[in-house]
Write a structure and sequence with these properties.
Length: 459
């Protein structure tokens, strides 16, 4: 996660289907060029989301009687679903006048987006719900989301309390906030400790390179029959949300600095994609489905692949399903241009503009994005906190692998490219898949995707 992200974690099924440090105050400041193509690190950049015409500018007063809130999101792993329910129960205990009806939608990614779009079209929308970065532009501009800024001002909650790149995707051009980021995730290289040891390989260093990753994947590959073969790396064919990290590390961007044109079909994009799909061409990586795995983390857990490029969502999945597998987490490798990059994924809690209980909805959003809940998610190993106040939590010292993921904040790029993020993801997924499966060369696939994205950007 995308989500996405997305967030959440196996709920980032968009991430799952892909194969896919802050300075002292937890932020590196504004992006130097302010453009969607240049957002790097925990920086804000500019919002490209047009503000709605009908947003309320004042906070509703609390209701005196009992209130019932319908709440929805996507269903995740059993362990994470249980944690969400536990935190919702705690909210009810501290707010006895507010009853919560939690009805998650089965499936994340496109399934969740499709269901939410149908609900909004019919006017049958939950009071409070998960909002992905793909959904935010459409619903914000259309006036379907509750403006949270008046409520934040009332309770002295500042946008600056959250990392800028995580709140920008849920804000419009004037700075009004329509969703608060619930958490975030990024990518690392998960490695099987025993497989590395058996292959005579040392733990990847902090400065390992693209060449090192290639060499590791080749050496860790153990050909055999369909049931016993082991591959160095597992990559899904539709994996733009893994490839983009290599694009950025190679000096490329997704869009130009003002977000008006595709830029991923540059030489940096072509070279990085050729490197990325090269793992499949040399036989050192496998698609999860080819080894009877549901996603890359599953292939890694089943020990059909020694390496996987995933995020914090894999940690609880391994604990629950493959607890005997000993693994570590390395940062993504440094490119030939002596640069490392990563992707930052997030999702938010938001409220329907037409809710009959806006103040109660705000109270729930405030709680579910507050320090107590985010701390519980961090300590459960599900996600990284979007609140700056948790940057120095002791959990990071106790869990160095998680710290590796958190440190990507200093060199990660937000997986958000303005109102057209969804179509950009779709077209890049198609380009990576065509190239990986040998249906087109990298330049042709990326140029075709760029033309399609540019048509969308101009519409």
């Amino acid at each position: 996660m995308k989500r996405v992200f997305l967030p959440l974690l196996i709920i980032f099924t968009v991430l799952l289907t892909a194969c896919g440090g802050s300075s002292g105050n937890g932020s590196t400041g504004a992006a130097s060029n302010g453009g969607a193509g240049g957002q790097q690190g925990l920086t804000g950049g500019n919002s490209y989301i047009a503000c709605p015409n009908n947003a309320s500018s004042s906070a509703a007063a609390p209701e005196s009687g009992p209130v019932s809130l319908t709440v929805t999101g996507w269903s995740s792993s059993p362990a994470e679903d249980a944690l969400v329910q536990q935190n919702l129960n705690k909210f009810q205990q501290s707010h006895p006048n507010i009853q919560i009806k939690w009805t998650p939608i089965n499936g994340s990614g496109d399934a969740y987006t499709t269901k939410m779009r149908a609900n909004i079209a019919s006017g049958s929308v939950a009071d409070v719900f998960y909002l992905s970065t793909d959904m935010a532009p459409e619903y914000t501009t259309a006036g379907k989301l509750l403006n949270l800024s008046p409520y934040m001002a009332k309770d002295n909650i500042k946008a600056a309390d959250y990392y800028p790149s995580l709140i920008t995707p849920f804000s419009c051009k004037s700075g009004q906030v329509y969703g608060l980021p619930k958490d975030w995730g990024t990518l690392g290289v998960f490695y099987n400790k025993k497989m590395l040891q058996d292959a005579g390989l040392s733990v990847p260093s902090a400065n390992w390179t693209w060449d090192d990753l290639r060499a590791y994947a080749k050496k860790l590959t153990k050909p055999g029959n369909a049931a016993t073969s082991v591959y160095g790396l597992t990559l899904d064919a539709k994996s733009s949300q893994r490839w983009m990290a290599f694009l950025f590390a190679n000096g490329g961007t997704v869009l130009n600095t003002d977000g008006t044109q595709a830029a991923f079909n540059s030489q940096a994009g072509v070279d990085s994609l050729n490197y990325y799909v090269g793992f499949r061409k040399d036989g050192s990586c496998v698609q999860p489905t080819d080894v009877s795995a549901g996603w890359a983390g599953d292939a890694f857990g089943k020990q059909r692949a020694a390496l996987a490029i995933e995020g914090p969502w894999l940690i609880p999945y391994m604990s629950q399903n493959f607890s005997s597998v000993q693994y570590g987490i390395a940062p993504l490798p440094v490119s030939p241009k002596n640069k490392r990059a990563d992707l930052i994924f997030t999702n938010a809690w938001a409220a329907y503009a037409g809710t009959r209980h806006p103040e109660a909805a705000w109270e729930l959003i405030k709680y579910m994005t507050g320090q107590e809940v985010q701390g519980s998610q961090l300590h459960a190993g599900f996600a990284l906190p979007s609140l700056k106040s948790l940057a120095n939590d002791a959990y990071f010292t106790q869990n160095p692998g998680f710290k590796v993921l958190f440190d990507a904040a200093t060199y990660g790029y937000a997986d958000n490219f303005g109102p057209h993020t969804g179509i950009i993801h779709t077209k890049l997924d198609e380009a990576v898949e065509k190239t990986m499966l040998g249906k087109a060369d990298a330049q042709t696939a990326l140029s075709e995707a760029a033309n399609q994205v540019n048509t969308e950007l101009e519409s």
